[in-house]
Write a structure and sequence with these properties.
2 copies of one chain form a homodimer.
Chain A: H1 16-40, H2 43-50, H3 54-60, H4 64-92, H5 95-109, H6 114-123, H7 131-150, H8 160-181, H9 188-206
Helix pairs in contact in A: 1-2, 1-4, 1-6, 4-5, 4-7, 5-9, 7-8, 8-9
The first copy, chain A, binds a DNA duplex through residues 13-15, 17-18, 21, 42-44, 47, 52-59, 62-64.
GO molecular function (chains A, B): DNA-binding transcription factor activity; transcription cis-regulatory region binding
Domain HTH tetR-type (chains A, B): 19-79
Protein name (chains A, B): AcrR family transcriptional regulator
Chain lengths: 209, 209
DNA sequence: ATAGAATATGAGCAATAACTCGTATTAACA
DNA sequence: TGTTAATACGAGTTATTGCTCATATTCTAT
């Protein structure tokens, strides 16, 4: 059987000093990922950039994978911060407006460190045991589905499972793709248009005309 | 300046024998990518699996990148085969039906070796100089845009640039995501539903009600 | 049949990777 | 202050990778 790389931290930093070490390592990993790419991200290099000895690195992380997971996780948390913050208002809004808010939020979320986002999205899946991003994606999906449930009678779709899948996937892809491949769409005016049309796409699909 | 890895074949195979060698190498690369992942895809391993000496590998390919590009390209061609085949009919059809055909085609295209498709989509972007996939994606985009142009007066959108981006991105993401993360959606009945709803999504967006 | 071109081989080198472990340093606390 | 636990260090081991090159085999064509 294949030796599957560990992805969990080796031990928890107890003292202040060591927490700084761990932070430096994670930060360095993120920087290297963004600036030099996944290949160049070796444990030796990480330690070097972090200004930490290679020995210390292995004291807290069992290997490269764990570092990368830590970076991805940190990024995920930052994004969820953004999302949850704006999700409160949505409940009170009428459906059409709510959808627009959701789309706008998706766009905003994608503006959190897009370069890191790109690396994580593109190069991380190869870190097999990374269910985290899966979970991440499902989280949005579930939240959205719950919202649809609460507005069921205003919608023209009946398979909410499928509808959620379609909406979340589309919007996620739209923003994601825009950030990664068409950054020109992220000028302020173009962004407004993107949000409008994205909202329109979903609205037209969900709401009985 | 950084030494950028070559991605073009080193020389063209002239005799039958060498063409077989090249084929074996590309095929082996594809198999390893699918079955063992990108990391395990080393030139040594490729040569081994192909039953070809490492020296021969370097006779035809300057490095790993070139092999991977060859695989991606082969896959792309296979898919374009599928797409172009069905694209003929579309011109004659009324818009609504045409859209459904296009969505159905996208789904079908994604059923060509989905496992390889996944690897290429997820792990290949890190092979920097791979504009091929970009080109690939833009090709669909352009084709679709041209189609919209021809039906302009039947549509409610006016920025066809943006509209194409939204439609192509959404449908691509839908099918892609379905294959990769929700294979249960690819049972035959579920697939029908997916096509219907996908078509509905785009139709509602494009066509004035 | 034979020369020369095309193709194939794989031992082996240089570079780099992941990772260990014995030792040194610092903090915590009695 | 002295003892112990926590933290940090980095030279060095082992494994792997990309890749070369001298040599061997096979094909083509005269």
């Amino acid at each position: 059987m294949t030796r599957r790389p560990l992805t969990k931290p080796r031990k928890i930093a107890a003292q202040e000093r060591s927490r700084a070490t761990v932070d430096a390592l994670v930060e360095a990993t993120a920087r290297i990922l963004v600036e030099e790419g996944f290949d160049k991200t070796s444990t030796n290099r990480i330690a070097e950039v972090a200004g930490v000895s290679i020995g210390s690195l292995y004291q807290y992380f069992p290997g490269k994978e764990a570092l990368v997971v830590a970076v991805a996780d940190r990024h995920r948390q930052e994004i969820m911060q953004v999302i949850r913050g704006e999700l409160e208002e949505v409940r009170a809004q009428p459906v059409k407006q709510a959808i627009r808010t959701l789309v706008a939020t998706a766009v905003r979320a994608h503006r959190v460190d897009p370069r890191l986002h790109r690396v994580i999205a593109e190069q991380i899946p190869q870190v097999g045991e990374l269910e985290d991003l899966e979970v991440f994606s499902r989280e949005n999906y579930t939240l959205f589905r719950a919202y649809l449930e609460s507005r069921r009678d205003e919608l023209r779709v009946d398979d909410l499972e499928l509808a959620s899948f379609i909406c979340v996937t589309s919007i996620e892809a739209l923003t994601h793709n825009a950030v990664l491949h068409y950054p020109e769409l992220f000028s302020d005016e173009a962004m407004e248009a993107l949000i409008d049309e994205g909202a329109c796409l979903v609205t037209g699909f969900l709401i009985s005309r």
